[in-house]
Write a structure and sequence with these properties.
heterodimer, A: about 40 residues, mainly beta, 1 helix, about 10% helix, B: about 130 residues, alpha+beta, two-stranded parallel ribbon, 5 helices
């Protein structure tokens, strides 16, 4: 199965390294985005 | 993470690479130190975005012959897993998304070591940028 659109992700939020929310949709608002989801940080 | 080694090729297409993990925000600094990645790193401790991206999670994802073989391969190359910073049963993946929200490419890791091919990602971005 593969997503055709990222609309469901666009309104969601993740956190930056200060714990501040970042709206996921902003990541591709200005340019194409490659989102690399890692298993864990270490 | 191999994809960050292609950061220049990715940026040459006008795209930007963002890494998303699932530990607490304080783990991000250690990730940067370990990988040398200086781009945007974010985290999704709730795993909501991982679920929305249809990424796999659970014990079954790393109890497979393929996963075992990749683990042996990693160990033979000297990799040693330290204390896990995030959800150990969560698998990763890659989404390539156009400015209009269209998903250009989607890799869903089936198990540990089932990584996206950076060359494929660069190819997709180059094709989209024409």
């Amino acid at each position: 199965m593969s997503l055709a659109r990222a609309d469901d992700l666009a309104a969601m939020t993740v956190l930056d390294d200060h714990g501040e929310p970042v709206v996921v949709g902003t990541l591709w608002a200005e340019h194409p985005a490659v989102l690399a989801f890692v298993r864990h940080f270490g | 993470m191999q994809l960050h080694r292609r950061i220049d090729d990715i940026r040459a297409t006008g795209a930007e690479l963002t890494v998303i993990g699932n530990g607490t925000p304080n783990f991000i600094a250690g990730f940067r130190e370990t990988t040398g990645f200086t781009g945007t790193v974010l985290t999704d401790p709730s795993l909501d975005v991982y679920r929305a991206a249809e990424l796999r999670r659970g014990l079954r994802t790393f109890l497979s012959v393929g996963a075992a073989m990749r683990t042996v391969g990693s160990l033979s190359r000297g990799f040693r897993q330290g204390r896990t910073q995030g959800d150990n049963t969560q698998q990763g993946g890659v989404l390539v998304i156009a400015k209009d929200g269209k998903v250009l490419w989607h890799h869903i890791s089936e198990s540990p070591g089932d990584n996206a091919d950076p060359e494929q990602i660069v190819r997709v971005l180059r094709a989209a940028s024409r």
